[in-house]
Each structure stands twice: as C-alpha cells, then as structure tokens.
Amino acid sequence: MGLTLWIVPDEKETSRLGRIMAVRPEQSVAASPASYPKFQPHITLASMPTEYKDKLDTVEASIPKSTGPIECDFTSVDVGSHYFRSVYVTIKLTPELAALHEHVHRVLGVQPHTPLFPHMSLVYIDDADAANGERLKYYEELKKEGKISYSEEISGNEMVSLNCGAYGEKEIVSRFVAREIWAVLCHGPVESWEVLRKFSLVDP
C-alpha cells in the first residue's frame, strides 16, 4: 500500500473506539488469520508511493500550518465489500476536510486514492470470511448489543452514535477531534504497519 497519512483520534477516544472494534459476533465464522487484526482507528487522508517514506519533511510541509484540530462527525455505520472497508463509520465531509484532502494531494503531486473518503474502519475481515457472512455478523452484533444509534441534527442531517461503554455502561461517542496526523508505512500484515512520524495540528 505504501505510505499513508492518517487522521487519528486522541488516546482517550482511541481507547473508547477500541471497545467497539473489539466486539465479536456470538456466532463468528472467522477462520482467516487476516480477520480482526488490531489497528489504530483512523481516517486515511492520503496514500502515496513507498518512496515518500524518505521525504517525510516534504509530506509534513503539505499539511497547512493553519489546519488546527480537525472535527470528525459520524454519520453512519456501513458494511463494505472490501477488506479495508469491511465495516466502517462514514465521516461527515466538511469543507475543512475536503480542502485538506485536496491541498495535500495537490502539493505532493499524487492522485487521490482514498475510496469513500472520509471513513473510519472498525474492523478488517478477510474476503473468505466475508463470503460466509462475517462482516454482516459483526455489524448485526453491534446493533444487538445496542452499540449503534441514529439521530438527526437540527439541520436534518442523519448522525450516528456509538455506545463505547464497557460492562453495560453507556459511553456515547458521535465524533472526535483529531489533533495529530500520522505518517504510516503500510506493508505486509496489518499489525506490522509502522508509524514513521506524527504531525501535530496544535501549537506546542
């Protein structure tokens, strides 16, 4: 996959979202070792050739200094047809996110390859397991456990909330504010991916 830029939640929100990502269907049929790897929740902002790992200063310079923290609002939870979009949260495409996406690709001179931008995957499930219904089983388990709820904004737009509470407690997450963008080298098994650098979006 090469080098990717990830918009990431902070440690607190990462921990909360990790509880959703750790849910497993009661009747799981997952057999592949490629299903359900552990990974940092993220929104892929950009994907570029591997040689950019040696140009991290250039990559960092593509992120405008004026960016600031990025608001990421959840709009739906969907089941996908691709390993890296097995079950994912669709994120509201704000003007700020759209402008950042366009700017980074233009400055770096790479074509966008970020399907369904912006989204945040909850799990990766192998195609063979998906053919046996595993992606849908995970999604249905979230619904059964009351982990997904929908509501409407004042504007009428639909929003989704995730109940990230443990042991029957409610802990609702419907958005996160990203204060960092990570440069991640994505080669080989998911759990071997390497964070090369973290770019802060807030002043020190």
Automatic annotation (TrEMBL):
Look up the domain of life of the source. Eukaryota
Pfam family membership, one: CPDase
Q: Which GO terms describe its molecular function?
A: 2',3'-cyclic-nucleotide 3'-phosphodiesterase activity
GO biological-process terms attached to the record: cyclic nucleotide metabolic process
Return the protein name: 2',3'-cyclic-nucleotide 3'-phosphodiesterase
Q: Which organism is it from?
A: Gymnopilus dilepis
